[in-house]
Amino acid sequence: MKKIFSLFWLLAFSLMVSAQLDSSKTFVENDVTFMNYKVVKGKTLYSISKETKVSQDSLLLFNPSLKDGVKTGAELKIPIKQKKEKRAASIEYIVKAKETEFSIAKKYSLSVADLRAMNPALENGLKIGMVLQINPASGGKPPKEENQLVNEEKKDSVAPAVIEVKKELIGCEIQEARLQKNEVNIALLLPLFIGVAEEINAKSKIGLDFYAGAKMALDSMRKTGLNAKVFLYDTQNDSTKITEIINKPAFKFMDLIIGPLYTSEFKQVADFAQNNNITIISPFAQSESILKNNNQVLKFTPDSKTLISKAVNQLTIINKNAVFTLIYNKNEADRILADSIKSAYQVSTGKTINTVEFTGVSELVDQLLEVNENVVIFPSTIQIQVIDFTIRLNAARLGKRITLVGLNEWNTYENIDFDLLNNLNFVYAAQMHNNYEDVKNIEFRKNFKTEFKSEPSQYAFQGFDATYFSVTQLKLYGKSFNNCLPKIPTFCGFNSCYSFHQTNNKSGYLNNYVNVLQLVDFKPTKINK
Predict the structure, then answer these.
(1) What does the pLDDT read at residue 245?
(2) Is 141 among the domain residues?
(3) More confident position, 285 or 308
């Protein structure tokens, strides 16, 4: 744990620099005007930020070398004029074979000089596949081209035909190597409580473990040529802190946001991500309400309704002759789960499931058959009730074949008897399933232990899998990779698999992959493909 803390402090506070501003040397890159800043002895990153009136985040963004420290004499780029928030619609134009600067400029009623001014990279020559920025306001209305993209925040006035062209252009096919995104800015928003709590609490440990896994994922991806600039923000589980984070100038330049981990914080950042066209990931279980009317959101963990419904659906496939009985409570949370199970069973079998209101076990026992497999589904969220039910059902099971279907969270209940669950062939569904005997899994745990001096928790595995998957898609398909998620084949990491769907074209994307697990000789064994 000390190693994880030291990584954070190194990332956040070890940059000691000194410099001298040279206002006579200014230059423009991507619509931002910079001054050169020559490092001299005696100043810190904080003093440079204060002197130039540029935030430390922006200094780090425009000068990646600062993350590794700087030396006296080094030159920094100091932004003195940011991009304007309101600007005319720009268009990304992908250069095709046999095109010239003159032919492209003519299409948009521009001069070659104007085209070059908009695209400084043309100084190195025009190349097939190059993405040019075109500002139609400089030279009239643009023609309708099959490879032009609207590159501004979405507005109601954008024609559907243009949006459709964008989808056709991406085609959900891996981009050619020269078009792949190899430099990305990634924001990690985690509850670390650095300098706030005297001791490591449960939430800070979750955040630190997740970061450790994410760091290992990015380290492994650097071998593929990816240069990921990571901006680590301590949310402290505080909405005021969230507001401070999203107001930082550097935050608008992110290509991907991972977190925050909790619903109370997530909505605020998700709204920012939508307004700035940035994909944002919810790696942990949260309400599906975060997906509503925000197609920038990726929800990696299905909710309890989806999980238990998938388990029931799988059992109807492999136990076609079984008798299914649903035990339900009247409290709202359990009633919602029961309703989802009824629907899943109806869709899967075309029949209505047998239901019994929970009053104990005796009424249920009278309905259990000795000649058939009995699948008993009990979607209870009441811990003391679950413990009592498993004890009584186990005592009444003699002479009957019973499979008990419950919730993944039962595995975390104190005083739950796993001997009884094993006897009852306990089945549940989970987004994560860690196969500790897998060779790659063993290698990951070995490498993690070498670097962080501890065994990886499930949060470390989640940090690795979620980061590796999302950054891989960002690299291959570009910043709008979320448009292609439903067509991307199922991806499996060390303990999580991802297969996304979208309920409608305005909603976010939900990971629909579920592991259906059964206790077999006390070992969670996957029973679905």
Answers:
(1) 92
(2) yes
(3) 308
